[in-house]
């Protein structure tokens, strides 16, 4: 229990020491093998290290063999093996080993279902079954055929609903120590899979139940706030996170904080973006961080540093993540209009009045290139939507689509997705479906997979 709690506070060295001690005192306790897997899982998540990922993969088979020697009459017998498969499968998906990921997740699901039949009151099985349901429901269309070939299907909303239900169920049971893990997955599902922007209060309430000295809790508070446009709260949470000592290094904090401070136009945003680049050893968001540094200096009129960091976007980092692909594209494109850039950053931070102020005095014909005209309408649509001026939002989104449906920019496709969402909320399912289909039909643009997946989810919801 102590080791598990240390893992979910991101005190991974402390967890390792506790696991070693338990192995010495009780060498027959098979749970230590599962806890070792948890430590490796969070080591990879916090570092994004390919080297650590390869170590975890190499240890999987030996861990399964060790767990197979445990008491077969325990509900933890199948559950612990399924967890090792699931953790490895999730990370394989993160690092692009999709077929192997699907195979591991299939093994995990089969074991968990068998466990549920044998031990229907063993609630931890429900946690992992729900998570796998979300993972397979969230696959892009190009990967769903692979999953179907393996006999694997999922449903995002079913999985999330099960996790929501379990959060309430598990609190007053002997399995209550799993509650932080359920909350951890619920936060990521809500933000990264369901793309909800309006659940800040709900998720903050969930996180309030976690250990207040937990680095994971503080990070999630900052992450949820930053992704739901509560920028001041994000900065507050991230600045007061515990650091050093027993806590595992978490470079992602600097990336989030640098971005949040850039959205607020803080003068020290560059410090945190540079710190992320210097401390992070993984593959993601390096190009994006260099681009944000370029924009930091562009907004301050420092042309030399703007050009310097643009060159670094092109020269360093990787293009695995969509954000980095987008950063490279922007670095090779015409420079952004400063007013549109300010509007974009203010919008991302939730400063909608400031974003609108950057746009309202502009005239579309004052922009010299079609990209900026398209973005102008798109930014107006975004701001009006968040200000609950839906008719104005739809009108500007439609202008974006008219101008940009054949372009490689994401504005038109995301505008169609946004109109679909507006009509879905109005229960006009026919129009919603029409716009979701338009979003899917637009090809060869930025964020294509992400937008297509969200549009497909929308079509499933409206039954078209």
| Rg result | 23 Å
Largest sheet: none
Uncertain segments are none
Helix/strand/pairing class, anyone?
mainly alpha
Strand tally is 0
* Strand residues, percent: under 5%
Helix and strand run: HHHHHHHHHHHHHHHHHHHHHHHHH
Average pLDDT works out at 94
What is the CA-CA span between the terminal residues?
47 Å
Shape, per Cα inertia axes: globular
So how many helices?
Answer: 25
Into which percent range does the helicity of residues fall? over 70%
Overview of this protein structure:
The chain is mostly helical and 464 residues long. Helices cover 72% and strands 0% of the residues. It has helices at residues 2-7, 12-25, 31-47, 50-68, 75-94, 98-118, 124-137, 141-149, 156-170, 179-193, 200-207, 215-227, 231-239, 252-263, 269-279, 286-298, 303-315, 322-331, 338-348, 352-360, 370-386, 390-404, 411-425, 429-441, 448-462. The radius of gyration is 23 Å and the shape is globular. The model has no long low-confidence stretch (mean pLDDT 94).
How do you describe this structure in short?
The chain has 464 residues and is mostly helical.
Keywords:
464 residues, mainly alpha
Can you lay out the helices and strands and say which pair or pack?
Blueprint: H1 2-7, H2 12-25, H3 31-47, H4 50-68, H5 75-94, H6 98-118, H7 124-137, H8 141-149, H9 156-170, H10 179-193, H11 200-207, H12 215-227, H13 231-239, H14 252-263, H15 269-279, H16 286-298, H17 303-315, H18 322-331, H19 338-348, H20 352-360, H21 370-386, H22 390-404, H23 411-425, H24 429-441, H25 448-462
């Amino acid at each position: 229990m102590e080791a598990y709690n240390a893992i979910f506070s991101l005190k991974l060295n402390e967890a390792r020491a506790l696991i070693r001690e338990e192995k010495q005192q009780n060498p027959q306790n098979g749970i230590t093998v599962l806890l070792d897997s948890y430590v490796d899982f969070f080591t990879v998540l916090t570092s994004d290290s390919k080297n650590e990922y390869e170590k975890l993969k190499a240890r999987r088979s030996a861990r399964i063999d060790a767990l197979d020697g445990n008491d077969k009459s325990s509900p933890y017998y199948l559950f612990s093996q399924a967890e090792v498969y699931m953790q490895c499968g999730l990370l394989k998906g993160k690092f692009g080993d999709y077929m192997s990921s699907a195979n591991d997740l299939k093994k995990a699901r089969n074991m968990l279902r068998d466990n549920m039949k044998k031990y229907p009151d063993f609630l931890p099985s429900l946690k992992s079954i729900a998570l796998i349901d979300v993972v397979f429901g969230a696959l892009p269309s190009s990967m769903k055929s692979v999953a179907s070939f393996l006999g694997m299907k999922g449903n995002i909303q079913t999985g999330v609903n099960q996790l929501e239900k379990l959060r309430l169920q598990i609190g007053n049971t002997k399995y209550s120590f799993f509650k932080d893990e359920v909350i951890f997955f619920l936060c990521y599902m809500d933000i990264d899979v369901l793309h909800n922007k309006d659940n800040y209060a709900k998720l903050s309430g969930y996180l309030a139940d976690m250990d207040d000295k937990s680095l994971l809790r503080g990070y999630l508070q900052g992450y949820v706030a930053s992704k739901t446009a509560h920028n001041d709260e994000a900065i507050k949470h991230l600045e007061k996170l515990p650091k050093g000592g027993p806590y595992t290094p978490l470079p992602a904090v600097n990336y989030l904080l640098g971005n949040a401070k850039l959205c607020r136009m803080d003068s020290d945003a560059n410090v945190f973006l540079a710190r992320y680049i210097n401390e992070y050893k993984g593959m993601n968001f390096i190009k994006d961080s260099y681009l944000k540094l370029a924009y930091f200096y562009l907004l301050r009129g420092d042309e030399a540093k703007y050009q310097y960091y643009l060159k670094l976007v092109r020269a360093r980092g990787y293009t695995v993540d969509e954000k980095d692909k987008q950063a490279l594209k922007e670095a090779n494109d015409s420079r952004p209009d400063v007013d549109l850039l300010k509007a974009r950053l203010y919008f991302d931070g939730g400063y909608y009045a400031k974003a609108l102020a950057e746009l309202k005095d502009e005239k579309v014909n004052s922009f010299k290139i079609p990209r900026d005209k398209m973005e102008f309408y798109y930014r107006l649509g975004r701001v009006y939507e968040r200000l609950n001026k839906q008719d104005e939002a739809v009108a500007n989104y439609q202008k974006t689509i008219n101008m940009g449906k054949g372009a490689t920019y994401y504005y038109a496709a995301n505008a169609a997705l946004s109109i679909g969402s507006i009509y879905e909320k109005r229960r006009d399912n026919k129009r919603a479906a029409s716009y979701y289909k338009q979003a899917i039909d637009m090809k060869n643009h930025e964020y294509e997979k992400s937008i297509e997946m969200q549009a497909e989810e929308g079509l499933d919801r409206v039954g078209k």
